[in-house]
Amino acid sequence: MVFEINTSVYEKLPRSFYLREDVVQIAQDLLGKVLITNIGGLFTAGKIVETEAYCGRGDKACHANGKRTPRTEVMYGEGGRAYVYLCYGIHHLLNVVTNKDGQADAVLIRALEPLEGMEIMKERRKFTNAKLASGPGTLSQAMGIHVKMTGHDLLSDKIWIGESNTDNNFKILSDTRIGVEYAEEDALKLWRFVIEGNKFVSKSVK
Questions:
Q1: Where are the alpha helices (DSSP H) in 1-135?
Q2: What is the CATH number of the domain that holds 138?
């Protein structure tokens, strides 16, 4: 089954969007934008409704904090590329690298509101209820995102983020990040952001 969408509707974000220095602001600005994949001619799209910010300097919750490894090398490159890592050996988690070379900032995409290609998503997920792409692991499965896509340019025609053509007049709520209890005082940072009232978020704000 091949399902095509008019990708010109979702204008790609420019490189300059990702090269900004404030990863917390970028995490908020990504809300309402549309993540799109074209995997083997199968197009899927979902509105970003939940994100988390990670700073490569002084943030104990960030993979790149205090260490540069083969896995995190992509984070030290120019913003606007995908950093996909495997969690618990099962879940493929998509992060958006931001900032300039050497800074290692990234935004985790935590939840999407499905917009296009829902049947493809259901087939990939083998799941049909409203939580089709709620949670970083489930959204990657629904969108066909895999660790082999680490380093992929987000201005490409395989995976990219575009502007939404829907009303983006919404309120942003903030909360602590999920699953970073090990990060000591940094676990208390209010760096998880959600669109208020959106039913597709992975976890409601406290």
A1: 15-18, 23-29, 118-125
A2: 3.10.300.10
